[in-house]
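Anyone able to model this chain together with (3R)-3-hydroxy-L-norvaline?
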Amino acid sequence: MERILVTGALGQIGSELTAQLRHRYGGENVFATDKRDECPANMVETGPFESVDCLSPAQIKQAVSQYRIDTIYHLAALLSAVAEARPLLAWDVNINGLLNVLEVARVYNCAVFVPSSIGAFGPGTPPDNTPQETIQRPTTVYGISKVAGELLCDYYFTRFSVDTRGLRYPGIISNVTLPGGGTTDYAVEIFYQAIKKKRYTCYLEPDTRLDMMYMPDAIRAAIEIMEADSKKLVHRNAFNLTAMSFTPQELSQEIGKHIPDFVMEYQVDPVRQAIADSWPNKLDDSAARQEWGWSPKYDLSKMTADMLKVLAERVARGEL
Ligand code: VAH
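re: yes, here you go
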């Protein structure tokens, strides 16, 4: 892996992944792209950035050929709640955008990382210790696009030998970038509100259990899967992956250990509650552990402590 292109580089995962990839492979070897063009200074200063729309095959081809790309981290997509509000756009971006990337990867012999999600499962999926191979009948357009995306990536591997690999990410919690339109976003927003107001109004029911992961683990997993020995990979697209599973009530109690007067209130959003209720409670990620050595470093307690520490430091610096 020498020359990397990141799509969706201004997104929640993309922005932190780009920074880590540049740290690991050299800034000049990691070409950041996004449909948007308002790029933060730290991204422009550490390596190349251009506005690339994944719905334009020509723009992807130009970027890959100009920068002699050999690996694509394809993160450009609409998340679950936004997708439900704009299902046709979500299908276009999440599927046609992916197809454009896979076609360019086929022609230019690039490896491709594509994130899937716990959203690729539905109400008929076993909710506890969800197996790597099981029923996938999601009831959201986001989840349908993720299942179709997994199958497309496997097809490009078996039919055209494109080195495609993916992870079924849980909700991801970051102390750097706010999420954009996901169902699990409460688990990020709550920290910012706890630090600033010592209270948060949650849009999910207190007992809504979901898999979650701290961003440092999520970024490390994306890099580790792409560096893994190809011959050891059985599942490829895409691996179940988790680090912790908690409810809003459990997260509130953990924050309360650090902020004793923290107050949690609930005002349920039926759309995002229905999405969350259709997802598993906890994945079995043994395939990832066995095939490429996955092992999370952050659990609920360690993540909460670090989130509150870093956000408090950002408030002290006047950033929030
Ligand atoms: C979302 N954060 O909420 C994303 C993720 C598992 C959830 O796919 O849509």
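The two ends are 36 Å apart (CA to CA).
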